[in-house]
From TrEMBL:
Superkingdom, natural source: Bacteria
Protein name listed in UniProt: Core domain-containing protein
Domain Core: 1-102
Organism: Paenibacillus auburnensis
Pfam families in the record: Fe-S_biosyn
């Protein structure tokens, strides 16, 4: 799999990392949604045992191997210009719009 990114999207994802290490995980969150799941992009520190890395440049992208079949081989992630969300598409599918980035990294307390 591969995700194509434009300049705005790259800049926004970089800003989401806030200068800290992290990877982006495509994840269908099915908890408390009463549906097939809501696509979110999680920022994670470490992958789970069932996660697979499918892209490493310009960012590391992962997904759970059980959710891999839900995605296409080539996708485009686009930041919404006037709203803090993203849209994930391919030539044949709209995977989601209004996709949010959720930072799940451990926050350190000073």
């Amino acid at each position: 799999m591969h995700i194509q990114l434009d300049t705005l999207t790259t800049d926004r994802l970089l800003k989401s990392l806030a200068g800290q290490p992290g990877s982006f995980k495509l994840f269908y969150d099915t908890e408390d949604c009463g549906c097939n799941g809501v696509l979110v992009i999680q920022i994670i520190t470490e992958p789970n045992a069932t996660d697979i890395v499918f892209q490493q440049e310009p960012f590391t992208f992962l997904c759970d191997r059980q959710q891999e079949s839900l995605f296409d081989e080539v996708m485009r992630l686009e930041a919404e210009e006037n709203y803090p969300s993203y849209k994930l598409t391919s030539d044949s599918t709209l995977f989601g719009s209004n996709i949010r980035v959720r930072d799940t990294r451990q926050q350190t307390v000073n």
